[in-house]
Specification:
By secondary structure, the protein is mainly α. The chain contains seven helices and no strands. It is elongated, with a radius of gyration of 19 Å.
Length: about 140
């Protein structure tokens, strides 16, 4: 009985070590500072109507990078989103964003409203937050500093 208990304890310790090791490895791959800098750059594109399309396309590329770094399989953003779909909570908004990015590259970029662009960027932001690429700072968190 004592040997069985030792094996259980050993297995639990091994699981804990592997679990935290993998979390640490994953967090090293995704650099939130890199994603924040790129996110702030592409959000600044909203100031000029002629750059709205570029904000969505760049956000789609940023999501592609984050999905790749998080080890989701697929050759395209769509395929990676399919493999990450169970982990991403707001998948409808994320799919809207990705589909809009595809439409922008295929159609005339001037056809889209600011409301659609902002909705797409919100979907991309939610996906990046859920992938731990972006961190959302709440007002209550800022007041603690």
């Amino acid at each position: 009985m004592l040997i069985f208990l030792d094996y259980i304890i050993l297995l639990v310790l091994l699981f804990v070590i592997v679990y935290f090791g993998l979390r640490r490895y994953k967090s090293k791959l995704i650099n939130p500072k890199y994603y924040l800098n790129n996110w702030l750059r592409l959000v600044s594109y909203l100031k000029q109507k002629k750059l709205w399309y570029k904000a969505v396309i760049d956000a789609d590329k940023l999501l592609d990078e984050a999905l790749t770094k998080a080890h989701y399989k697929g050759n395209t953003v769509g395929e990676k989103l399919v493999s990450a779909q169970k982990q991403l909570k707001s998948s409808e908004e994320i799919w809207f964003a990705h589909k809009l990015a595809k439409r922008i590259t295929e159609d005339n970029a001037n056809k889209f409203t600011k409301k659609e662009i902002v909705k797409a960027l919100t979907g991309f932001r939610d996906a990046l937050v859920q992938l731990d690429a972006l961190r959302v700072v709440k007002k209550s968190d800022e007041s603690r500093k």
